Automatic annotation (TrEMBL):
Source species taxonomy: Eukaryota, Metazoa, Chordata, Craniata, Vertebrata
Protein's name according to its UniProt entry: Neurofascin homolog (Chicken) a isoform X9
Naturally occurring in which organism (per UniProt): Danio rerio (Zebrafish)
Domain of life: Eukaryota
Length: 1238
């Protein structure tokens, strides 16, 4: 079926407008059959630049391409004489082309000169521009010995560069011996001629390596001049401490001098520049301190939208010079000693430029027409006409042709009138040359569209029936329906000049066969278009919003009604992303619904159903919310069910080139029926050991025919699936090897885009391993420029990316790809369109201006840029704006630069800038942006917003006392105008009842108010707002706190630089707060106030030490302790007195005493020495102090009396001493006691 849009462009080509009796030029359609039949004079389609500089190391290519029928032949002239290409073995001409190729061997300078190409056939001759061929030159720097330069500190200095004259001229820059650029600033900078200028020399400038470098573009070489040595004579020794001084010249004792100009010299000069070129003016001044440079234009301001000030204000650059830039420009150099001026008279001349370029003229016999060639320039150019490359004055007379200055009039042309005419507009600054042919042809009407096309439209839609045609003379076209009646035009129909028939609202009765008939004096031609009117596609049962518990099954309906003759497809999206339906997934769809099994919270979202036919579509959406529930009952129901056992006994049969039959025996279902079988495969060539899903089958199948890919060594396994889950995989089958074949799929994801302005990156997705079909997979990539007859460029690669270099900026390319392996080539992809890289836009929006300014928004208008200057895909016009100042004195503002984009292609674009601060001064400028870059800035515009309603007061505090309420506030952070006062409203609050509201007004200088309370427990609610001339602003509402829990009503702002949630610290327990969130940049963007109350804290603890009951209790406890101590002391005294006899320490021989259990005690002199603080017992042994550990040892004999004293240790019975003798326990020794614990 032929689409409507495909031939829209061709239909436009069939328009022929008649101006009185003259026929306007038409473009011959690109239909191949017409192009083959039409005789057409030559047309130059490609040629080299007029000023053509070539690299001497490369072959010289001088381009000349032309089209015509018959195919043109080519000749060249060099320096005005015939150039015999065949006689020079180094020169060749490309076939079917006039392009010359000169090999680089020998001296390329021998071929310098002026070349002109002539393309001819039997209908005429077209000529190219005169191409001035020159060879690039990069001469060496002349040898010279530079003497050291000695200068007194504070004096000016110029270090000359004088680079060698190259072609094109080199770019100059200054570096030192470390290949580092010489630092430049207001004092030291390089001039336009490459010299290095010092406004004044300082001691730190003394170096031995000031070197000027020249970079030659064509040869990519850098020539370096011998370095200068600079010696500075100083009065003061130099050290680094002078660098931190604010007055270097005063510290260094350098006398101050008045400014003088280093470049240019004198007080005035003149400058001539050509229209459209770049104007560069320079002023470099000497003086101490370093002078500052300012620029001005006499009689007006500098054209800010085109002017660029650079090189530390020393250069003025005007882009795209025009006649409006003529005038006197003054630079003023000034310091605190004085100033000096230099005036430059700028004259703008112009090489010729087109006002009306002649265009090709196609006429029928006996028709009339004209060629017009209008150009302008300064001085005004002269117009010269040529025919077939020779002056028209010397051509054969033609009675059907009249020359009137810039116009040639043709009357009643005949076939012999066909020729190619050239218009040459020239003045002293250049020339323009244009070819335009006059072609006389007669052709019966031709239909350019397909025969008997079928167009399907939706009922009640606007419909266009296309009928592109061509003929000479211009045919008359009429439409008929079903071959009956007169021509269709008017009422329900509208006929356009290009033959298109519009049906304003297609109805069922409009179906039928439409015939378009084109006729002229040479005959007629007709074509038919069959129109079918279809019912619209509609979703008659749309999905509904659902809220379901986790684990349940959800079904969304999507019943579609559509025209029976149009197949419809239904697709589903979740949150605007396509749903994936896998073999074993929980999502299933059919023609009328979507079912989700075992839903979980992640399934929540918006589900969209889209029903689509080839000519229309309809959509509907619903929301799913999943809630948590108790799943215990579901668990109980499935407690007895389990996963199925794996299938068994896998067998392969019926082998073929790309299929094999797989059979298996199902395993035990384990109380839950099997719903599906999943077949997986593993191959050992690309990803051995990795099992991948192949296909899924219903429960009632156990023998399936598997569709396979070539050149894969398969083995298979099967997994059973029931409601509980998947079984373990079966044992693998035997391996099955498929044979190889050429690729049968096309690489996907083919696209081309530019990463740089002169390249295009072409990428595509690698084919899957199972799509290779054979070894050694490669990709054959082809590309060429769109809408040209160029040959395809080809490359074969195994990668998935290729970069095309040296492209023009943002031009379309046709791209295609195919896969190939050792078995052959795969299918070729469809052609895709890619684009080379984008460059920065070269033009800025002009005439940026504003209108309809109010307090928060303003209308913006500008003049658009030409699409060709965008140098890429137009993205938007981007407006940069910032708040320069508030009109309220002393109010500081945030000058952060903001931006807003406007996407519009209107002829007179405009937009609205909102969210501005009232009563403020704003500045803005605009750029145009493509996908990668932004262009130059437009003119900067200032505007002032009007007054607005003020914001809320900065704070509103309530200080409540017993009988009065003291209110205090402060002016708003954003007054948005001149405050004229405050309005306070208040009323009593008693539960939910509000009393009568009262109003108080205050002048702007009053920020507090004291109000008497009629009763201590009366509560009020207050509403405070500031006022400007516009009106009252945002209300600050607070409620007076309870008397027992007062607040001060203060406002606190916290700047938040993070996403929610945040925690507010430092709040008072049990207090009420009002909270809002607002934009720090735009105070007008704010949430509503919310009120909350913090929780009550624990009751404040009283100081227990000051309580009477606690003091009494402590006294009672102290008395009781004192009594107990006295009782203990008395009872201890009743234990009796005993003699204590000091004994001398007698040395004892160490004796081994054997215990009854057979163990030994070891004693030494140290063991028998009394410890400090110990007592000697009655038997002469050392006795531990009262707090000795022996009292608590298990082996000790000391016991407590009933009163808890230790008296028993000192009243040991004699018989016990006799029994025990000198035996001692380990625990009796303090040392041994410590060891035992260890």
């Amino acid at each position: 079926m032929w689409t409507q849009r495909r031939w829209a462009a061709l239909a436009v080509l069939s328009i022929i407008s008649l101006l009185s009796e003259e026929a306007a030029a038409i473009e011959v359609p690109l239909d191949p059959k017409i192009q083959q039949e039409l005789k057409q004079p030559p047309t130059i389609v490609k040629q080299s630049l007029k000023d053509y500089i070539v690299d001497p190391r490369d072959n010289i290519i001088i381009e000349c391409e032309a089209k015509g029928n018959p195919v043109p032949t080519f000749q060249w002239r060099r320096n005005g004489k015939f150039f015999n290409v065949g006689k020079d073995p180094r020169v060749t001409m490309r076939s079917r082309s006039g392009t010359l190729e000169i090999r680089s061997s020998g001296k390329p300078e021998d071929y310098e000169g002026e070349y002109q190409c002539f393309a001819s056939n039997n209908l005429g001759t077209a000529i190219s521009n005169k191409i001035l061929l020159r060879v690039s030159k990069s001469p060496l720097w002349p040898k010279e010995v530079l003497e050291p330069v000695t200068v007194r500190e504070g004096s000016p200095l110029v270090l000359a560069c004088n680079p060698p004259p190259g072609l094109p001229p080199p770019e100059t820059f200054w570096m030192d011996s470390f290949i580092m650029p010489i630092a430049q600033d207001r004092r030291v900078s390089m001039g336009l001629n490459g010299d290095l200028f010092f406004s004044n020399v300082l001691a730190k400038d003394a170096k031995t390596d000031y070197s000027c470098n020249a970079r030659f573009e064509f040869t990519h070489t850098i020539q370096q001049k011998n370095p200068y040595t600079l010696k500075v004579q100083t009065k003061e020794p130099y050290n680094d401490t002078f660098l931190n001084s604010t007055d270097v010249y005063g510290v260094r004792n350098i006398p101050e001098t008045q400014p003088t100009f280093l470049s240019p010299t004198g007080l005035s000069s003149t400058k001539m520049v050509l229209r459209g070129e770049e104007l560069l003016l320079e002023c470099i001044a000497a003086g101490v301190p370093t002078p500052t440079i300012t620029w001005s234009k006499r009689g007006g301001d500098l054209p800010t939208k085109k002017v660029r000030i650079g090189n530390f204000e020393k250069t003025l650059r005007i882009l795209n010079v025009s006649e409006e830039d003529i005038g006197s420009y003054t630079c003023m150099a000034s310091n605190r000693i004085g100033s000096i001026r230099h005036t430059v008279e700028v004259q703008v001349k112009a090489a010729p430029f087109w006002l009306e370029k002649p265009i090709n003229l196609v006429l029928a016999p006996d028709e009339s027409g004209r060629l017009v060639c209008r150009a302008n320039g300064s001085p005004k150019p002269t117009i010269q006409w040529l025919v077939n490359g020779e002056p028209i004055e010397s051509s054969l007379p033609n009675p059907n042709r009249r020359v009137l200055d810039d116009t040639i009039i043709f009357e009643t042309v005949q076939f012999e009138s066909s020729a190619v005419y050239q218009c040459n507009a020239s003045n002293e600054h250049g020339y323009l040359l244009a070819n335009a042919f006059v072609s006389v042809l007669d052709m019966a009407p031709r239909m350019l569209g397909p025969k008997n096309q079928l167009i399907k439209v939706i009922e009640n839609n606007r419909t266009f029936l296309e009928c592109p045609f061509f003929g000479s003379p211009l045919p008359l076209l009429r439409w008929f329906k079903n071959g009956l009646g007169s021509g269709l035009d008017g009422g329900h129909y509208r006929l356009y000049h290009n033959g298109t028939l519009e049906i304003k609202q297609a109805r069922t009765e409009d179906q039928g066969t439409y015939t378009c008939v084109a006729s002229n004096i040479l005959g007629k031609m007709e074509n038919q278009v069959r129109l079918e009117v279809k019912e619209p596609t509609r979703i008659v049962r749309a999905p509904e919003h659902k809220t379901e518990p986790r684990g349940t099954t959800v079904r969304f309906d999507c019943r579609v009604k559509h025209d029976p003759s149009l197949p419809a497809t239904v697709t589903w999206l979740k949150d605007e992303k396509p749903l994936s339906f896998s073999w074993i997934g929980r999502l299933k769809k059919d023609d009328e619904s979507l079912t989700i099994y075992n839903v979980n919270p992640d399934d929540g979202g918006t589900y969209t159903c889209t029903a689509k036919t080839e000519i229309d579509e309809d959509t509907a959406s619903a929301r799913l919310t999943v809630t948590e529930n108790d799943s215990s009952s579901a668990s109980n129901r499935s407690a007895s069910a389990g996963r199925p056992d794996p299938p068994q006994d896998l067998e392969l049969s019926d082998p073929s080139a790309r299929s094999v039959r797989l059979t298996w025996v199902p395993g035990n279902e384990n109380n839950s029926p099997v719903t599906h079988f999943l077949v997986q495969f593993e191959e050992d060539r690309w990803e051995p050991g990795k099992w991948q899903n192949l296909s899924i089958y219903d429960w009632n199948l156990n023998s399936v025919n598997l569709q396979l890919s070539p050149f894969v060594n398969y083995q298979f396994r099967v997994i059973a699936i029931n409601a509980v889950g998947q079984s373990q995989p079966s044992h693998p089958s035997a391996r099955y090897q498929t044979s190889g074949a050429p690729p049968d799929v096309v690489p996907s994801g083919l696209k081309g885009w530019g990463s740089k302005k002169n390249n295009m990156e072409i990428t595509w997705q690698a084919m899957q391993n199972t799509e290779r079909n054979g070894p050694n997979l490669r990709y054959v990539l082809s590309w060429r420029r769109k809408d040209t007859e160029e040959e395809w460029n080809n490359i074969t690669t195994a990668k998935t990316k290729h970069v095309v270099h040296n492209t023009d900026t943002y031009v379309p390319y046709e791209i295609k790809i195919q896969a190939v392996n050792d078995f052959g080539h795969g299918p070729e992809s469809n052609m895709v369109i890619g684009y080379s890289g984008e460059d920065k836009p070269s033009a800025a929006p002009t005439d940026l201006r504003v209108s309809k300014i109010n307090s928060t928004k303003v209308n913006i208008h500008w003049e658009p840029v030409e699409q060709s200057s965008v140098n890429g895909e137009f993205k938007e016009y981007k407006l940069y704006y910032w708040r320069e100042a508030s009109l309220i004195k002393g109010l500081k503002v945030n000058k952060t630069k903001l931006q807003k984009g406007f996407f519009t292609t209107a002829e007179h674009p405009s937009g609205i800038l909102t969210e501005l601060y009232p009563y403020s001064k704003y500045k803005m400028y605009m750029v145009v942006a493509n996908r990668e870059h932004e262009g130059p800035q437009s003119n900067t515009v200032e505007f002032y917003t009007k007054e607005g309603e003020p914001g809320a007061p900065k704070y509103f505090r309530i200080l409540r006392h017993t009988d009065v309420v003291h209110l205090k506030w402060d002016k708003p952070l954003e007054p948005n105008g001149v405050l004229i006062g405050y309005t306070l409203q208040y009323h009593t609050v008693n539960g939910t009842q509000a009393g009568e509201r009262k109003v108080q007004s205050f002048p702007p200088n009053v920020t507090e108010y004291v109000m008497n309370l009629p009763h201590r427990f009366t509560r009020f609610k207050f509403f405070l707002a500031a006022r400007t001339q516009v009106g009252a602003g945002e209300v600050y509402a607070v409620e007076s706190p309870h008397f027992t829990n007062e607040g001060n009503g203060s406002m606190t702002s916290i700047q938040v630089n993070q996403q929610p949630h945040i925690k507010l610290a430092g709040l008072v327990a049990g207090a009420k707060y009002r909270l809002r969130v607002y934009s720090h940049e735009h105070n007008s963007i704010s949430s509503d106030y919310v009120t909350f109350e913090t929780g009550r804290a624990y009751k404040e603890q009283e100081d227990i030490a000051t309580q009477g009951w606690f003091i009494g209790l402590m006294c009672a406890v102290a008395l009781l302790v004192l009594i107990l101590l006295i009782v203990c002391f008395i009872k201890r005294s009743r234990g009796g007195k005993y003699p204590v006899r000091e004994k001398k320490d007698l040395p004892l021989d160490p004796v081994d005493h054997k215990d009854q259990d057979g163990s030994f005690d070891y004693h030494s002199d140290e063991d028998n020495k009394p410890l400090q603080g110990s007592q000697t017992s009655l038997d002469g042994n050392v006795k531990e102090s009262d707090d000795s550990l022996v009292d608590y040892g298990e082996g000790g004999d000391g016991q407590f009396n009933e009163d808890g004293s230790f008296i028993g240790q000192y009243t040991v019975k004699k018989d016990k001493e006799e029994t025990e003798g000198n035996e001692s326990s380990e625990a009796t020794s303090p040392v041994n006691a410590i060891y035992s614990l260890a």
